[in-house]
Amino acid sequence: MTDHLLVASGLSAGYDNTEILHGLDLTVPPGKITVIVGANACGKSTFLRTISRLIVPTAGQALLDGKSIHRMPSRDLARTLGLLPQSPIAPEGITVADLVSRGRHPHQSLFSRWTRQDDEAVDSALSATKTFDLAERPVDELSGGQRQRVWIAMALAQQTDILLLDEPTTFLDINHQIEVLDLLTDLNHTRGTTVVMVLHDLNLAARYADHLVALASGRVHISGTPEEVLTEETVRQVFGLENRVITDPISGRPIMLPIGRHRMAAVIDDETGRPSQQEKRA
Amino acid sequence: MQNATIDVVIANRRERVRRYAVVLAGLLALVVAIFAVTLSIGKTITPPGEVLRVLLGEPVPGADFSVGQLRLPRAVMSVLAGLCFGLGGVAFQVMLRNPLASPDIIGITSGAGAAAVFAIVVLSMSGPMVSVFAIVAGLGVAMLVYGLSFRNGVAGTRLILVGIGVSAMLQSVIAYILQSAPAWSLQEAMRWLTGSVNGAQLDQALPLLSALLVFGGLLLSRSRDLDALRLGDDMAAALGTRVAQTRMLVIIAAVGLIASATAATGPIAFVAFLSGPIAGRIVKNGGSPLIPSALTGAALVLAADYIGQHLLPGRYPVGVVTGALGAPYLIYLIIRVNRIGGTL
Predict the structure, then answer these.
(1) What are the ABC transporter domain coordinates in residue numbering (chain A) (predicted)?
(2) pLDDT digits over A197-213, tens only?
(3) Distance from CA of A206 to the nearest CA of B (A)
(4) Which of B230, B280, B284 minimises the CB distance to A89?
């Protein structure tokens, strides 16, 4: 179970002289799945990298249980907060079991022996991600979907109560995207892990999020339940895209249909409520 | 069921550790074997019994000189330099996740070499002071290359290109100093251009051994963090590694190793560059390449010196032989990079 509280308050950060986050305030609800969406370069990745200490904020604070993340001992932080970056690197020839066991890094030191607890963590990470049968295979021989499951297994072996994931579904086929998101939801349900992830696909975000956050130009534009956040107005403001939001008959969550300049035969006319041949203007 | 799977996990882990130990033992045995061969088989063959007696300090007519004075210092310096080059080289390659980021490609070896030549020829220094001079210059070059290639963090490709440029400049500095040293013997000059263990003496061994223990120890104490860096800087940081601090310590330790070895034997070409990738091939399944690479470096220098002394027509310094081995691999790497398209 997890009741660690992760809070960003007035967080500003960026690279070199370019500030990307401008005083971002966000409270991550413990034990829930939080999904962050937003247009390119709005600071989604920068936010994850700042709260996991890869970037030092220029103003404001990232707090874990009230303590500044940037002043905590790095190993203590790594036992509570895990991050799966966008493009981690698998050393050449490394096997799945070996890679997953690297997740135990913050729990070990130069002279400490490998413990039963470490083995149990690796075992349960492999089982939870259904990568047990791959354990002896070299990671570089796996398919994209399998590889992503292995990386998640590694993050699981770290046994953190909070897990941050930067676009965990990018480059995956749709079936593997669903598989990864289901896996993370299982994890949240069974272990109570707080999941915070950046997703590109708004509809998947709305389907899997308990708490949806839309960022725009380095600040939280709106946050709340998917129903509160994924609205036509939000999409228009955050992405500058004309759209319709309807209810997904499968999940009951909102689903967004983009409106472009072409193929708009079935646009629903606002006034008549019937399909119209006319293109909708902003 | 739960027990069954964890038993598999434990068995897998033990098998990994066992396989790694076998690799280490094999490499160690290889180094010892080549070491023994270089001591007993040269122009004349000295029986192993006599070699042992010389090593134990007993007077053995004839072998005293050929083994004790000629072969032993040579072999000892080869091993020490090989260990230093192998360990220092792979540390850079692992840290920057790029086989081309080896100290002999990115100018650190040339920097240490130029400083050593300058210290010896122009300042008439000798002994440990030369090493200190070389280490300081090596660190200076490392910082220079690092600084010049820094923009939003260090990109491997940029660092390598800057390093190759700096290296070329320093090579010309070495050539210039050697040219303006009138009394310089050709053999000594060769030493600073390609590296050699000709004229090695046992009293050179102690400073190099201390450097190996200090800097090698520092590096190995960071081996877990260095291993985490192989997963990418972000992943390493997420696992609790202090990336910037680790990098700084690794640079100091690796430069210390490379510069000390360079000050003692000259820049034995491509040993730092070759050892890591060869060790990686031997270890294969992702285990730490640090110690395997050090042993590979020792085996490379020992074997290359033996080949250069006894198996080729004429005698060549060890650096000529390792250079002939390393150049094709460098070309292969560059061709591969070209084919993959950009990212080294």
Answers:
(1) 6-242
(2) 999 999 999 999 999 99
(3) 27
(4) B230
> With 90 as the cut, is the pLDDT of residue B78 above it?
yes
Distance, C-alpha A133 to centroid of its chain: 26
Q: Model-level pTM?
A: 0.88
C-alpha separations of B100 from B331, B332, B334 in Å: 11, 11, 9
* Phi, psi for A253 (deg, rounded to 5): -90, 165
List all residues of chain A from 89 to 118 with a beta carbon under 8 Å from chain B.
Answer: 89-95, 97-99, 101-103, 105-106, 108-110, 114
> According to the model, what pLDDT value does residue B342 have?
43
Flag whether residue A168 sits within 8 Å of chain B, measured between CB atoms.
Answer: no
Q: Which of A20, A74, A80, A131 to mutate to test the interface with B (most CBs of B within 10 A)?
A: A74
Query: How far apart are alpha carbons A247 and A267 in whole angstroms?
Result: 16
Mean pLDDT on A5-34: 91
- Whether the CB-CB separation of A164 and A197 falls below 8 Å is answered with yes
A122 near A104, Cβ under 8 Å? Answer: yes
ipTM of the complex: 0.86
Which chain B residues touch A108 with a CB distance below 8 Å?
224
Q: Which of A92, A93, A147, A103 is nearest to A125 (CA)?
A: A103
* Cβ atoms within 10 Å, residue A24: 25
Residues 255-274 of A with CB under 8 A from B: none
Neighbouring C-alpha atoms within 13 Å toward the C-beta of A72: 22
Q: How far is A198 from chain B (nearest CA, A)?
A: 16
Quick one: which of B124, B115, B134, B258 has its CA closest to B173? B115
Q: Which chain B residue shows the shortest CA-CA distance from A109?
A: B224
Name the residue ranges covered by the structural domains of chain B: 2-340
CATH fold of A6-276: Rossmann fold (3.40.50)
Strand partners, A224: A212
Q: Do B231 and A90 touch (CB under 8 A)?
A: yes
What are the structural domain ranges in chain A?
6-276
Instruction: Express each pLDDT in B16-63 by its tens digit.
Output: 999 999 999 999 999 999 999 999 998 888 888 888 888 888 888 878
Q: Which amino acid is at B254?
A: A
For domain B2-340, the CATH class is: mainly alpha
Alpha-helix runs per DSSP H in chain A: 44-51, 74-80, 96-101, 116-128, 144-157, 174-191, 202-208, 226-229, 232-239
